[in-house]
Design a protein that fits this description.
Length: 387
């Protein structure tokens, strides 16, 4: 079996959440890049591979097949284009970029270099979501008619850099969390969103980026999706998921309010840096015995409601209710590695490629535009599921 050598740029929280997936025997972490010496040092210790202060230095390693980009959002486009120009396949974290123009530049750079571009992790990679798509494709439950997705979290009160609290610079929940929810809805709804009508909330002057949204997506073919998200650290929707958190690990309901308490009396940037990979308070992610999820999700079809859960899929049919279990994951986020490996080794076009991710970004940007202009926004850059 051929191994692919991956170099990671941006050794922060996103990297720490993705790192367990790189334990997959098909992958070798062959390099890491981050300006923080402490992150470089920990990377060398954990992975026995060289670490660099910049992407440019790491790209000189000819043996690297693909670059995983987990830097702040504003760097995604330039770094993806640079990696592609060096002949490297690209796996870039969501959101793909900050504008559709940047998305197009990334797609063009990958196409020109003859490399593949994969965008993720997003929760549409989660196995229960993918298995729900298979149930839809089977035809046993008829057409998708309606999708309902809600998630209430503490997102806005986790330690943030200044730009993460500035919507104009890509901060706030619409691009950061909407990219997950929209990707899931598009995967289950067929991909092609026709229009968006949305409202956005920004209620805390001390944290001025948008912290909530509610939107209605209309799909080609007549299905529609209602998406609701709040990051204001009050109600926790993991209560509806058996107190299994987004990562698949159990949560303590008695820890209510921990995010807000942690910010009090602390320098926020110092707190964030201390928790980052290599920081003084860094701890590896907890064991994840179940599949990841993004809150309560119901797919209404002609003959059943389908509800993906961290341990399987609940099916509410015309005459019976049943549960279809899914075995716990062996390696977290293995589906991301599946797509990347198939692209690099087999030349297979990924589902979560550039065009797919740009269509998700178009929906997210339309959520903001609809809220700002108070009207329905038609879309023109959508793509369907592969046939």
């Amino acid at each position: 079996m051929r191994k692919i050598n991956v170099g990671a740029v941006g050794l922060g929280r996103a990297f720490s959440l993705m790192a367990p997936a790189f334990a997959d025997p098909r992958v070798s972490l062959a390099g890491g890049a981050d300006p923080r010496p402490e992150a470089q040092q920990l990377f060398r210790k954990h992975h026995g591979a060289p670490a660099f202060g910049s992407l440019e230095e790491m790209l000189e390693k000819r043996e690297i097949d693909a670059v995983y980009i987990a830097t702040p959002h504003q760097f995604h486009a330039a770094q993806a284009c640079l990696a592609a120009a060096h002949g490297k396949h690209v796996l870039v974290e969501k959101p793909m970029a900050l504008t559709l123009e940047e998305c197009r530049a990334m797609i063009a750079a990958a196409r020109k270099a003859g490399v593949h571009l994969v965008v993720g992790h997003s929760h549409s990679f989660d196995l229960p979501v993918l298995e729900t798509r298979k149930l839809i494709d089977s035809g046993a439950y008829g057409a998708v008619r309606m999708i309902t997705a809600i998630y209430y979290t503490d997102f806005l009160y986790r330690p943030r850099r200044p730009e993460e609290l500035d919507s104009a610079l890509g901060g706030g929940v619409v691009l950061n969390q909407g990219a997950h929810q929209v990707d899931v809805a598009r995967l289950l709804g067929g991909g092609r969103v026709k229009s968006v009508r949305a409202h956005v909330g920004a209620w805390d002057r001390a944290r001025p980026a948008e912290g909530a949204y509610s939107c209605l997506l209309a799909f080609e073919g007549g299905a529609f999706a209602t998406l609701v998200y709040s990051g204001y650290a009050h109600f926790d929707a993991d209560e509806f998921c058996g107190w299994i958190g987004e990562s698949g690990a159990s949560k303590d309901p008695e820890a209510y309010g921990a995010a807000r308490r942690a910010l009090r009396g602390r320098d926020e940037l110092d707190l964030k840096n201390s928790r980052n990979y290599g920081g003084s308070s860094y701890a590896p992610p907890a064991e994840k015995p179940l599949h990841q999820h993004f809150g309560p999700l119901i797919v209404s079809c002609d003959k059943a409601d389908l509800r993906p859960l961290p341990s399987g899929i609940a099916i509410y049919g015309d005459d019976e209710k049943r549960f279809q279990p899914i075995a716990p994951p062996g390696v977290p986020r293995a589906q991301v590695i599946d797509e990347l490996y198939a692209a690099v080794v087999d030349g297979r076009a990924p589902l979560h490629g550039g065009e797919w991710a740009m269509a998700t970004m178009e929906v997210c940007l339309a959520i903001r535009q609809s809220a700002r202009e108070r009207k329905e926004i038609p879309l023109g850059n959508q793509t369907g599921l592969p046939t």
